[in-house]
Amino acid sequence: MSAAPDWLRFAPQGRWLQIDSQQQHLYVFEQAVPVRCFSISTALNGLGEQSGSGCTPRGWHVIRAKIGAQLPDNAVLVGRRWTQECYSETLATQHPERDWILGRILWLSGLERGKNRLGHVDTMQRYIYLHGTPDSEPMGIARSHGCIRMRTKDITLLFEEIAVQTPVYIA
């Protein structure tokens, strides 16, 4: 794992997140040093920016919004809103088709015009998030629909530590 290129340009304060899609890890960097690592799951369809592709977008992004601050860790979110449900095996059995978004959302926005920002490649308009997922979903394997999935305990921890406007590099 190497530090993201151009980190000084996109993260001049020295703190950023790096998504390593090959290793299926998220790293928290302080300057050029990784200080924390989480196992994740990126898109089953691989990397790509095109709207409707089901791919995880590459390049530099920023956390545009944090959603779910006061919610239970297993709160079910649909359309960025709490459904008033909390995830359970019973609920999963009742709704086997759901792509579960649990607990917290870190909503990404692209920083690179024409690559992951604006037009048919706009990460924010594609609703690409870092979000919680059920413990039954495997980490370390690309299985999402485009977002970056994390364990609910991990996204809750990251949510508390990371500010809006934190840069995120996806490679």
Kindly identify the CATH topology: L,D-transpeptidase catalytic domain-like
Side by side, the strands of the main sheet go 3-2-1-10-4-7-8-9
- CATH class assignment: Mainly Beta
Query: Globular, elongated, flat, extended or rod-shaped: what is the shape?
Result: globular
Structural class: mainly beta
Q: Beta-strand percentage?
A: 35-45%
What's the β-strand tally? 10
InterPro entries: LD-transpeptidase, LD_TPept_cat_dom, Transpep_catalytic_dom
Active site: 131, 147
GO molecular function: glycosyltransferase activity; peptidoglycan L,D-transpeptidase activity
Family: Belongs to the YkuD family.
Keyphrases for this structure?
mainly beta, globular, 171 residues, 12% helix, L,D-transpeptidase catalytic domain-like, 8-stranded mixed sheet
Structure, explained:
Pathway: Cell wall biogenesis; peptidoglycan biosynthesis. One of its GO terms (cellular component) is extracellular region. It comes from Oceanospirillum multiglobuliferum. The structure is a single chain. By secondary structure, the protein is mainly beta. The protein has one domain (12-170): L,D-transpeptidase catalytic domain-like (Beta Barrel), CATH 2.40.440. Helix content is 12%, strand content 35%. The protein contains three helices and ten strands, in the order αββββββαβββαβ. Strand 2 and strand 3 form a beta hairpin. The protein is globular, with a radius of gyration of 15 Å.
